[in-house]
């Protein structure tokens, strides 16, 4: 039996569930706002755009819109490339690493950061990331050019970033094939109960009430949403097709890691992610229908 056949089909999704939050929590931590405010980047959206796109270097709004997919271009253009006149991409990358270090120390504690489990998780995640693919994966490829930090908890955060962005880039490929535009993708994801709540789509993604409602109307006309804004059977099937295709495109890292490595990574990351969630790493109102 080959390693590929030993790794369950749901391995990419299960790993993403516990690995992604280890990276994503820093977007909501006070440390990143404090670090970038000290550089002169204080507005909430600008903090996100700067932190996530800094690995590209000094790029324009078009590149960021293409890579981020579900953010309104005009909102991105309010900040990019102007933020690079305030702070260089390297300054932002350095500030982001300091913020990740500080918030992981605050939420997990020094004992967890110094543990053998942290070192093991970092080694497993980095091994999985060895099989990530650069082609048609702009956010992954940009972050893959960055050095791996020495400290185990930061190496794990870096590896989590690579795995998250690799899957995210693949997810956008699946969305492009699905026929959903960026707003429709957000609204239909929110209808699953796993996507962002409406207020976050407005305040962070930049879409207006009217744009969200118009997207709902389009989805209803296609038979994907019901009158109450919930997914129909057809809509649910489409969203599952998107996730299955995302899993397929994200399979290589976990085949490379192997079945035993996948299960151990999930075990370790489940504990770390649970501690982040218990520490309030994410806003309570983040999830919900649009």
- Quaternary structure type: single chain
Distance between the termini: 45 Å
| 3D shape | globular
Strand portion: under 5%
- What's the structural domain tally? 1
Count of helical stretches: 18
Q: Rg from C-alpha positions? A: 19 Å
Q: Give the low-confidence spans.
A: none
* Estimated structural class: mainly alpha
Order of helices and strands: HHHHHHHHHHHHHHHHHH
Biggest sheet details: none
Mean pLDDT, all residues: 95
The portion of residues assigned to helices is 55-70%
Number of strands: 0
Question: Would you spell out the secondary-structure blueprint of this structure?
Answer:
Blueprint: H1 3-6, H2 11-24, H3 30-39, H4 44-53, H5 61-68, H6 73-77, H7 83-86, H8 89-108, H9 110-113, H10 116-129, H11 138-144, H12 152-178, H13 182-191, H14 198-203, H15 209-221, H16 233-249, H17 252-257, H18 259-278
Helix pairs in contact: 2-12, 2-18, 3-8, 10-12, 10-18, 11-12, 12-16, 13-15
Polypeptide structure, described:
With 290 residues, this protein is mostly helical. It has one domain (3-278). Helix content is 69%, strand content 0%. It has 18 helices and no strands. The chain has helices at 3-6, 11-24, 30-39, 44-53, 61-68, 73-77, 83-86, 89-108, 110-113, 116-129, 138-144, 152-178, 182-191, 198-203, 209-221, 233-249, 252-257, 259-278. The termini are far apart.
């Amino acid at each position: 039996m080959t390693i590929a056949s030993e790794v369950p089909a749901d391995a990419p999704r299960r790993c993403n569930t516990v690995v992604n939050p280890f990276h994503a929590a820093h977007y909501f931590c006070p440390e990143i706002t404090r670090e970038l405010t000290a550089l002169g980047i204080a507005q909430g959206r600008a903090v996100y755009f700067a932190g996530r796109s800094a690995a590209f270097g000094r790029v324009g709004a078009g590149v960021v819109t293409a890579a981020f997919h579900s953010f309104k271009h005009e909102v991105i253009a309010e900040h990019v490339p102007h933020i690079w006149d305030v702070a260089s991409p390297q300054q932002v990358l350095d500030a982001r690493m300091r913020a990740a270090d500080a918030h992981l120390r605050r939420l997990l504690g020094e004992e967890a950061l110094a543990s053998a489990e942290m070192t093991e998780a970092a080694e497993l995640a980095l091994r999985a990331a060895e099989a990530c693919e650069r082609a048609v994966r702009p956010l992954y490829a940009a972050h893959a050019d960055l050095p791996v930090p020495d400290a185990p908890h930061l190496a794990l955060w870096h590896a989590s970033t690579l795995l998250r962005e690799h899957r995210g880039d693949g997810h956008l490929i699946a969305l492009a094939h699905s026929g959903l535009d960026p707003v429709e993708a957000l609204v239909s994801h929110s209808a699953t109960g796993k996507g962002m709540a409406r207020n976050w789509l407005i305040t962070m993604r930049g879409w207006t009430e009217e744009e969200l409602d118009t997207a709902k109307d389009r989805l209803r006309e296609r038979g994907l949403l019901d009158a109450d804004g919930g997914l129909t059977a057809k809509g649910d099937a489409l969203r599952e097709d998107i996730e299955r295709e995302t899993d397929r495109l994200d399979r290589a890292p976990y085949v490379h890691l192997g079945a035993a490595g996948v299960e151990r990574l999930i075990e370790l990351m489940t504990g770390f992610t649970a501690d982040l969630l218990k520490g309030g790493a994410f806003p309570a109102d983040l999830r919900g229908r649009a």
